[in-house]
Amino acid sequence: MSVRVARAVRAWGWGTSGRRGASNFRLPPLGTVDVAELLRDATAAEEVPQEAAARRQPGQCSVLLFPGQGSQVVGMGRGLLRYPRVRELYAAARRVLGYDLLELSLHGPQEDLDRTAHCQPAVFVASLAAVEKLHHLQPAVIENCVAAAGFSVGEFAALVFAGAMEFSEGLYAVKVRAEAMQEASEAVPSGMLSVLGQPQSKFTFACSEAREHCKTLGIENPVCEVANYLFPDCRVISGHLEALQFLQKNSSKYHFRRTKRLLVSGGFHTRLMEPAVEPLAQALKAIDVKKPLVPVHSNVSGNRYTHPKHIQKLLVQQVVSPVKWEQTMHAIYQRKKGTEFPQTFEVGPGKQLGTILKSCNLQAWKSYSHVDVLAAAEDTDQDL
């Protein structure tokens, strides 16, 4: 078995042997391939995955992008159910979560699906189910994957895809993260504001003045800071609601072209989420994190992970740190002039990451595709 094939098998087996004894949650039903042994056998025989990747032409390689919270929509998953193991993934999710995620994803209601505690697991599972569809329709895309990245909670799905953790382990960590972030959001009235600016926009100065405004209202230690770097001149700002209202009211002063409140429950990726740090850290300690078989880029730095210990550390740090997505896109798609770009597949609900890629790198976006999770399966095979 080649390392590339082993990489694909590793991604799709979901590892149900239960050997990682530190985990304190139930694993999916037995019956899938014991991919850990297959992988050990393969890597013992051939330990040159980077050399194998180098022999492939850039245009034959692929990159997978995993969306984050905010992409959820009622009906997601409907276009995936006929593909192998998708129903098994949702059955395993029910065991880990304690409720029927497939029913919620397919039929809502939307307000329940939008709750942070629900939408993060829903997006995580739908994204990995979309990868199952992609694997069924175009297995070479999985074998030739050279990089993966996920936006916020999507980073957990990217790491599961890359074999750094098993499906149930990743979902359990997402469950703990989502519930802790939901609780932190309810403690302080806060939110997120998408801001489309201009080259002369003053994001840092605007956040500073918004914090000063909050102090005049009697708010102690107000929070207002950039939480997401999306593409040039576009940021998401998180903080106290009063700070976001101030920025919207005074947007012209800071040369903001457009502002829009996001439908999220709190000021994510700021210190307002500090109550979620310790629960997530404890959950990740129960996971035997492996070195990814496909390079995965961190939201915190934009760079690829180099060691399993970095994964545990930065996934915790990510909760209270800005998502450097623009920097991640530059890191993944930087190449010499004239070099072909890899095929890019957004796996999961929505096409937001494709839109961002178009603004970050138009040439890379020309090789972009979306794996649909909504439409009836027989109507969407031609998408790819």
Automatic annotation (TrEMBL):
BP term (GO), one: fatty acid biosynthetic process
Q: What is its EC number?
A: 2.3.1.39
SMART domains membership: PKS_AT
**Does Transit peptide appear among the keywords?**
yes
Record's Gene Ontology CC terms? Answer: mitochondrion
Q: Which domain of life is it from?
A: Eukaryota
Q: What is this protein called?
A: Malonyl-CoA-acyl carrier protein transacylase, mitochondrial
